[in-house]
Specification:
about 270 residues, alpha/beta, Rossmann fold, 2 domains, four-stranded parallel sheet
């Protein structure tokens, strides 16, 4: 049900959405290329929708933590698609931040990891503002629902081409599009610190998570019903539901504290 889909029709629908969203006045779309599954798939879709001349790849490694394979795979994708790409090592920028902030104490692994993601977002928008691009995000539905992204980091973008597809579905779409098999089969990793793997941090493989998310969110079953239908532990279903519930703030605009009309005055 989740996986036996018409990938040709899905591809055309996403490409049509990209063409509708990206305004004619813009130069096209920026894709931050990490060498991973999601960003590679987004790049393939954007090129298919807009043509290679309207896609810019930004490859922004941190030479301290970015695996060489990821860097090489990002270059491979850019060259395979024939898009313009630019490479910038963000390590010196990150070090300026850390040096400036160390007066307040030693940074944590999480604070530095999220800072890496936010620096990349700032660079994406620097070029978007400078040259008139639109920023494409590479988040998928699994990551969005779980809150498994950095707020105002990789979550900072103008639109999400694969935001309706679960991670396991993105792998199938990537294979359909011709993304190199090495990338399709690569373990998911935000690479925000050495050895960082998504499924290790989440505690479950996406093949386990995605059917649970589908039944909870799309079908609307209760946790008890999901556990029974999939023959999995109710405790595991509740943990995954807890990730969805606790990350809801990441999927909405900042809360506005509304003032009553009585305090607002009148014209």
């Amino acid at each position: 049900m989740l996986y036996d889909l018409d990938w040709g029709a899905i591809t055309e629908h996403i490409c049509s959405g990209i063409r509708s969203f990206v305004p004619s006045w813009s130069r096209g779309v920026i894709v931050g290329l990490s060498g991973g599954l999601d960003s590679s798939t987004v790049a393939f879709l954007c090129v298919k929708a807009l043509g290679s001349s309207r896609v810019l790849g930004l490859i922004l490694p941190d030479s301290d933590v970015t695996p060489k394979d990821d860097f090489d795979d990002a270059i491979t994708v850019a060259r395979l698609l024939g898009i313009e790409y630019r490479v910038l090592d963000i390590k010196p920028i990150l070090n300026v931040f850390i040096d400036s902030l160390k007066v307040f104490g030693s940074p944590s692994r999480l604070s530095v990891g999220n800072l890496r993601a936010r620096i990349r977002m700032c660079i994406n928008y620097y070029f978007a503002n400078l040259e008139g691009w639109i920023v494409a995000g590479s988040g998928d539905k699994s990551e969005i629902l779980l809150g498994y992204f950095t707020k105002y980091g990789d979550g900072g973008c103008d639109f999400l081409p694969i935001g309706s597809l679960y991670k396991t579905q993105v792998r199938l779409l990537a294979n359909f599009l011709g993304v190199p098999s090495k990338i399709v089969n690569k373990p998911s990793s935000p690479a925000l610190w050495p050895g960082h793997l998504a499924e290790d941090e989440l505690g479950y493989p996406y093949s386990f998570i995605d059917p649970i998310l589908h039944l909870l969110v799309d079908v609307g079953l209760s946790p008890v019903e999901v556990a029974s239908k999939l023959n999995v532990s109710l405790n595991d279903v509740l943990k995954i539901k807890g990730m969805v519930d606790s990350s809801s703030h990441k999927r909405s605009f900042p809360k506005i504290i509304e003032l009553p009309l009585s305090l607002m005055g009148s014209i």
